[in-house]
Task: structure prediction
Amino acid sequence: MTDTAITSHVFDVEQETFETDVLQASLTTPVLVDFWASWCEPCKTLGPMLEKLTAEYHGAFRLGKVDVDKQQELASMFGIRSIPTVMLVKDGQVLDGFAGALPEGQLREFLSRHVQPLEAPVEEVVEEPVKETPEQAIGRLQQAIAMEPDKAELKLDLAVALMRAGQISAAEAELDALPINLATDARAQRLRSELELAHALKDAPPLPELQRRVQADDTDWEARDWLGVRLLLEGDAVAGLDQFLAILQRNRAWNEGQAKKRLLAAFATLDDAELVGRYRRKMASLLF
Result:
């Protein structure tokens, strides 16, 4: 039983809203009105049991809580002489009630005479779509191309999937075989930029080794450059761009200004306009 299940059917009753929240509301759903006070020890026993049963009944009735210290006129109107006192309001009238903290068994018996529990609402389970792996995408696209060999768009999709799977040579071959009208497509151009960056990693060590090199010597520009490319191609664009910025900030002339070239190539691979704009401004602030 969750807190949401309880609070959705339990509310505080006030003099000003009594007619609307209790009398009128009881025309469609019975309202159990609990007169209580914070200093009342039996109320501390009865209140939680009422809330528990309210949740179990799944909206068959609602529980209105009246703090007699704050709502003295309302308590007087009902002639409340002791607390806790509970009244069941149905069809705009008091139908039944009791005084004192009844045991749970008697509470259930009292409720059963007037209302029956509703079925718990069935929560719709939204299944997350299974994310297709690059290898699965390659297989799917190859089958689609076999069925529609003249559909060049599928070949561009295949080139992208091959790149995501790390099959750089195969991706480049598919990209080079595209017709002219698709060769200038934005996705094709982005893929071409990714391939150029990937070729820069031909002799690069693995990611952990590059990270160790940069930690050991933060002026190891070659390691920073490779690390930036690896991070970028592996999906951590921000971390990759930060490596290029670090080189640009501290040694912009290194390797004939390669940090600036890397940034421009990276911008061409990203489709996040906000991210690209932010890092273009950072680059400009270092250059001018």
Remarks:
- The two ends are 62 Å apart (CA to CA).
- Residues 60 and 115 are 7 Å apart (CA to CA).
- The first helix runs from residue 3 to 7.
